[in-house]
Sequence to fold (317 residues):
Amino acid sequence: MSLNSQSIVLLRGALRRLAGAVVVLWAAVTVTFIGIRAMPGSVEDVVLGIHANEPGLREQVRSSLGLDQPILVQYFQYLGQIITGDFGRSFVLRADVSDVVFSQLGPTLQLAGASLLTALVVVWIIAVTTSGGSPRTERIIGIAELLAICIPTFWAGSLLIIWFSFGLNWFPASGADGPAALVLPTITLLLPLAGVLSQFMREEIGRQLRLPYVVSARSRGISEFRLRNVHLVPHAAVSTLTVAGTLFGSLIGGAVIVETVFGRPGLGRVALSAVGSQDTPVIIAVVVLITTACVVISTVVDLIALWIDPRYREELA
Fold:
């Protein structure tokens, strides 16, 4: 495939992903809007608090927030605001939603990014060193992967706090002051991701080890280190990165629990507080932001896979 043909295929793939991203974002906003409106209770009660029964106030709040409009009008008005980047004001915090959300975005991205990168490095080391090993080694690693996937995140975080914060006093149990405070939340969040990715990468490298070109390479005297890291890992990395991009959404979702367990700032705590108070603008802004991040990461991973692996380009051509 020529360079121009490759560029056309990559452009076609990017356009398809962009169209899909728009549909995903619209669906996420719509489902969230319907879900919030279906929740019991009312926004007026949350906004008014102890003044909810004072005469005339409820009508004033409904009018000022646009809640006296038909539900379809409210939906399309809010959809129009989101398209222009205006998420409105928080019903509860009395502040611009953009300021509330973006002030908490950094800690969440820091935690999710550190977990993703660390998981990829850990998975690389485990897959390269244990793939094609003895059946006993395969079983031990398989059990460890299953445990990493199945252990509840809040329980893993609590155990790490007990062992490394209260017991050994190596890392702080809560807060977000300095790199040391990031260690335990990162380990907690990466465990299920690393378990899944390790299964994919070990299986792919094990499959590659049984192919004839590996036997041929070994007969030419290539070192095992170079064979696995230079020739096998790139093949396994394509499918592993694709799965990692798909799981990025669950990583952000897991950050909600981890931020709560470790008392860290972030989008998770903002989202939980907003759901409890039915603060619709904040909830939808968090959903849009997380969905956008997932779509962007997934698109970048797909384009990297298209660029690396010619089989994907041939399927799309």
